[in-house]
Amino acid sequence: MTTTAPQPEHLDVVIVGAGLSGIGAAYRLQTECPGRSYAVLEARDAMGGTWDLFRYPGIRSDSDMFTLGYPFKPWREAKSIADGPSILSYIRRTAAEYGIDERIRYRTKVVSADFSTRTARWTLTLDVRDETGRTEQRTLTCDFLYTCAGYYDYEQGHDPVFPGVESFGGTVVHPQFWPEDLDYRDKRVVVVGSGATAVTLVPSMAEDAARVTMLQRSPTWISPVPGRDRIADGIRAVLPADLAHRLLRAKNIAFTTGFYQFCRRWPKAASKLLTRLSTRALKDPEAVDEHFTPSYRPWDQRLCAVPDADLFRAIRGGRAEVVTDHIESFVPEGIRLRSGRVLEADVVVTATGLRLLAFGGITPHVDGRAVELSEQFVWRGAMLTGVPNFAMCIGYTNASWTLRADLSSRLVCKVLQLMDRQGYAAVVPAPDRKLAERPLLDLDSGYVRRSIDAFPRQGDRWPWRMRQNYPLDAMATLRGDLAGDLSVTPRSAVRSGSTVEAAG
């Protein structure tokens, strides 16, 4: 006897990740492709991604909210550089306003993804966890898979092994896993690191700690920025919210793009400008020369922004200090440096960076074979060679993440519209054999160097290059011809996946 086997649930599109990018992707999909069924799969218990996961003191954006926020949802709060809880609330409000929260499936982790060229469908294996912690494995199929999980490993950060750490008599914490009950009031704190997390932690913890020391191996470029945009206040006071948001977004895009280009084209002049700003804020030229004048050019690594110069004010006020030295070992009372100095500490925060993880840990398979990501190229900043009906969402490194994330989501919608018009079942970028290979992220930061070899590559020219230029990307992504770069499979050439027979 022949019976019809039960079919897994099928959706047109699956979005992985319910953070800032995933919520934005869902809005674009339901607005520009309203006939498509979709769901947002979130491995954690709550939406918000980075802004829900990270709970360390002072967590905030390092980009202005007029560009980090969604173009379709004006940012209405006073601060341009916003704290983490405010950003999380903004994400939640957006999801609720557009009904996206009803499409999110929490505690649902994609553990494998396999595309069949025979049926032009993805088969996703999911670990679905209930509220008691029990996990059940399920299967879901979809036509198009869009990963919006960023490129950070949410389950573990970069945590180097320090000699003698087991002898330390105090508490060691990593910002990614901040203990809710950590009490550092009136205690001595050492923050190891000098990146965006460290420069956020130091002034925030200095408000309550006895003293906070930022210990860095080498200086980082740090720029004071206004925490509140006075021009924005004036514009929002006289113009409707939507119009004001568009104008402010355009203003800030122009500024960040121009400043980045200035840094890359005239690095000596940019270095002098940043040094002058730091000196004005710290009022100590010798300290700026020792601790805030890196050997690398501005934007070889990501530039750290400090709103209202709060880090420099904490140092100037004597509540914090910066030490540039190397760790020799931990000792019971703190950290011994190569110079011989011992930094006494009750709490050590290892702000030593994040780990990169492509696609939230999903390794795409095609017809049962794992795709070697390092051999693939990224097309228009979103789709990959060798992986049909698949896109990833990666933001800018030199500007607000959401600027590129929103372009990627709009590109996905344009590709889906093209598939509908032309009757395509599958599309995949066709590689250009003459491409020169480059790392996906053009930064010399430690967290990038440690993991970037496992990621896809970018090429040396558009549409295979990940340009750090929003105006150019916007024009090319939204107006350029897509079909010429794609290898396509018509619907007539694939076998329907709707009926599977099993003998019994």
From TrEMBL:
GO molecular function: flavin adenine dinucleotide binding; N,N-dimethylaniline monooxygenase activity; NADP binding
Keyword Cell division: no
Domain of life: Bacteria
Protein name (record): Monooxygenase
Pfam families linked to this entry: FMO-like, NAD_binding_8
Keyword list, A-Z: FAD, Flavoprotein, Monooxygenase, NADP, Oxidoreductase
Cofactor(s) required, per the database record: FAD
Species this protein is from: Saccharopolyspora erythraea (strain ATCC 11635 / DSM 40517 / JCM 4748 / NBRC 13426 / NCIMB 8594 / NRRL 2338)
Family: Belongs to the FAD-binding monooxygenase family.
Family annotation (SUPFAM superfamilies): FAD/NAD(P)-binding domain
Keyword Oxidoreductase: yes
InterPro entries xrefs: FAD-binding_MO, FAD/NAD-bd_sf, Flavin_mOase-like
